[in-house]
């Protein structure tokens, strides 16, 4: 909404002006009113209205003096003068101070509406012009950025001569001496992608963070005495840094970059990983330096996010091993038997070995993880997990964590299934026992045959889960069944023994006394 201030020394006139038209419908809100010129001037600074309606004949400071002050100090502010006099001199002065309209009292509602609409039209036209200019500036800036990015691309690809590089730097108004030149690639941490919706590329929030990171980098480099540099965004998470100087600066650069990394992490919780090339001279050395910085940044896989990586002697790809052998059967057994602690310990040792970049290539680590997951490929398919998940990681630590987590979860699921099956085994045993309690042939061997497991395994599992041996459990049930039957009817010893599965009445009698600490005959008499 546009803002309007109404000034007249007569209260009724002010009320008439406030109610003569629907201000809100015209896009205005009344932000203040005054009954003298001094009050108007004091309110201008904090209300900053778009339109001021001023009565000429106000006390202390009259309307023409107010119009002069507004014209001088607030040239974009619109004014409408109201007066009870059709004095030509007043009208002439009002025109001098760019007053939009001059209305005579008593004020006609339609004349006021027409004047206000004229002001609104002029304000809208000005806003549209400003918007177009801002858009043009932004478009021109974006185009310039695209041109500069293309220049850097051609430069690092060895497509420009020294003279062409120098000419482009001059055109872009960039000072970059080439006596000493160095390149670095800066990768912003993966947390930056959290600021962008999936598959959306850049986002305003991410762009804003990157802009601040660029500003902080420039500030740190300048403070370190390295004013001649190019710091440019390559893609959503990568920046190119080219430093030039007339003197050697390799000893200053690491401290400046370390400060930059620390400030960015403190302000944005964002890691910077920097691959630094060696130093050389001449613009034509940049392509080689750029490739060197790319090679150093690639070592982030071993060193992790937030590392500053300088050139070091690494054995060639051919001299390092691209495969790490491992005991497949042993690891498969650990996974399926639920031995997660042993599994994790062994896998961690293998990843520690793979962290030696002098011995193993990056490909060896990914191949190792891929083959580990292939041990349980069918299981991963069931859980809708594909081996592609490991190719989304950026460091060896992330690769190890992801692979170990997946295999640990698989191992736990195997163990839980085994527990479920073992519980089912016990429940099925109990069911068969109850169904065949009066069968003299009921035994551990018979149950194991019915359940298709070995007798020793069945006995072990039953006792571990129930806390009582299987044979003892059968005898206990038979004794309690005998007591239950006796409570219903008076049975002779041999008849009762047969009803609860004993062929030998004497053996039944011994079992009864052992269980209840009283003989069968004594129990019957005591009933």
UniProtKB/TrEMBL annotation:
In terms of domain of life, where is this protein from?
Answer: Bacteria
PTM sites of type 4-aspartylphosphate:
55
Residue ranges constituting the HTH araC/xylS-type domain according to the UniProt record: 427-526
> Pfam families attached here?
HTH_18, Response_reg
Q: What is the lineage of its organism?
A: Bacteria, Bacillati, Bacillota, Bacilli, Bacillales
Which residues belong to any copy of the Response regulatory domain? 3-120
Q: Show the PANTHER family listed in the entry.
A: HISTIDINE KINASE-RELATED, TRANSCRIPTIONAL REGULATORY PROTEIN HPTR
- Which residue ranges run through the membrane? none
- What is the organism field in this record? Paenibacillus baimaensis
Question: By its UniProt entry, which InterPro entries does this protein fall under?
Answer: CheY-like_superfamily, Homeodomain-like_sf, HptR, HTH_AraC, Sig_transdc_resp-reg_receiver
Q: Which SMART domains match?
A: HTH_ARAC (SM00342), REC (SM00448)
Q: Which UniProt keywords apply?
A: Cytoplasm, DNA-binding, Phosphoprotein, Transcription, Transcription regulation, Two-component regulatory system
Q: What protein am I looking at?
A: Response regulator
Location in or out of the cell: Cytoplasm
